[in-house]
Amino acid sequence: MAWTRKILRVNLTQGNCVSEPLNMAWAAAYLGQRGLASKYLVSEIDPKVDPLAPENKIIYATGPLTGTMASTGGRYSVITKGPLTGVIACSNSGGFFGAELKSAGWDMIIVEGKSPRPVYLHIENEQARLLSADDLWGRTVWATEGTLKKRHQDPLLRVSSIGRAGENQVLFAAIVNDLHRAAGRSGVGAVMGSKNLKAIAVRGTLGVGNIADGKAFMAAVAAGKKVLAENAVTGQGLPTYGTQVLMNVINEMGASPTRNHRDVQFEGARKISAEAMHEKRATDGRTHLVTNQACFGCTIACGRISRIDETHFSVDTKPQYWGANGGLEYEAAWALGNANGVDDLEALQYANLLCNEDGMDPISFGATVGAVMELYELGILSEDEIGLAAPFGSAEALCRLAEMTAHGEGFGKVVGQGSKRLCTRYGRPDLSMTVKGQEFPAYDGRALQGMALAYATSNRGACHLRGYMVSSEVFGIPIKTDPRETAGKPELLKAFQDATATVDSTGLCTFTTFAWTMNDIQPQIQAACEGDWSLESLLRTGERIWNLERDFNLAAGITAKDDTLPPRLLNEPCQTGASKGMVAELGKMLPEYYSLRGWTADGVPTAATRARLGL
């Protein structure tokens, strides 16, 4: 049994921490992490609750393989009702925090209520206590982590915290652990801030030893690592170039949303690509990229560690930005760069470091700035109102808006509400490139039809990681499909979504699925966990999780009308690239998708579907 079978329930209103047994019947049905925590959340809160009210709960959850020898087994998720979207939020993070929590003896932490004053949760194995965070409030993630390690005299203490963005209720605030790994999307950091919970600091020395069949598990793990090492993506591409390897690939095929989705190709993409990170040198001859980095137990090591050239950009950068620190990933580089027409690599790195330091999702932040720049160029927003000129391509505007948003200053407070609220406020909701209130990531749904459907149907709003159709439409994994075609995409997407829901519940990283199929994952789960974890059972678990999330969203007020895309993607064709002249053909795919899901024409799971899945 790879579960610890224990939950830590923290009531901030009462100021107490209580251990309780894990519901093993639910674990058998939902596995762990995303699935199991979602089951707890939907069972304990009203779907219509205000996400920032004390009645909302926030759950930190590990998977059964978190903290084990399985490659990439260091993941944890944060599950809550998201303030950016008003739907269920599950934000996944790597680094070392998840494994430490599991090693301390906990499968999950359920946080409820609201503390009257700022606090942090300190966990040392099976002991947990709430301590004052008065001196930490108003400080950055980086300062908080350093202070707590020094206070507890433990450099191995693992810290997950919010910065000023979470405190100031920026609706896309993130929760950051290990300085630059983040549960980044949907505003989970704002929920944490609304509860006056600054951080969770954990030290675990108990280890993870409850493996059902140790010998079979180690054999399955070794076989899986071999597959990852021999795969071109996980063994070569991601370790060498990270996710930024996609920048030139996606741009050249005409699928890179540019200048708030006005265009699908960015002329400055090469200047901010993975290759540029390798080649660009500062005045002292050092390259921008320092090294790659791995999370706990990871044999892929896709993370980037970069340095900023303090002599390059006019912003007065802080000394801690000059040395090696968290580097640009593809989604962040796109959102800060292509989405705004900014091709200054150092400016992107500076804005990204601000997002890390103060806990903001760079995807939602960058995409919201793209909306600001379009409103500015249309004359709807003025320089006086924003506080600076903000045309497309302005590196200065990007960096200044990052500072203002992180600090909760001036127009940054408006940016911090996300593009849906911003564009609605200024009478142009059509210019918000969002689904269910969450900003798009780095793939254009007109050029990649499968991704268009994935965005529209995602349970947490626009998201690439809920069903990464790019694998098929660009890389040919597991099969090659024409990105411009709609035929077959609903069936393939459903398979991707169900499989991803399962992977997100294991404690493994979804990047393994560039190389692994469920046939590689199933033996690891079966050997680690008690019970029946056949391939059929795992896939049914993923489908059950997807429908559970859908049920919650429907109860929260989401309808089939929300399974759509912005008018720009539906009506304005691509002007360049391989998909020139195309729009997102969502109407051709959505009815078939609903049918395959076993939902009504209104997108509601039927009684037969609910019975089959045990909902």
UniProtKB/TrEMBL annotation:
Entry EC number(s): 1.2.7.5
Keyword Heme applies: no
Domain called Aldehyde ferredoxin oxidoreductase N-terminal: residue spans: 3-206
Stretches assigned to coiled coil: none
Alphabetically ordered keywords of this record: 4Fe-4S, Iron, Iron-sulfur, Metal-binding, Oxidoreductase
GO molecular function: 4 iron, 4 sulfur cluster binding; aldehyde ferredoxin oxidoreductase activity; electron transfer activity; metal ion binding
Cofactor dependence: tungstopterin; [4Fe-4S] cluster
PANTHER family per the UniProt record, alphabetical: ALDEHYDE FERREDOXIN OXIDOREDUCTASE (PTHR30038), TUNGSTEN-CONTAINING ALDEHYDE FERREDOXIN OXIDOREDUCTASE (PTHR30038:SF0)
Record family assignment: Belongs to the AOR/FOR family.
Entry protein name: Tungsten-containing aldehyde ferredoxin oxidoreductase
Organism of this sequence: Candidatus Accumulibacter aalborgensis
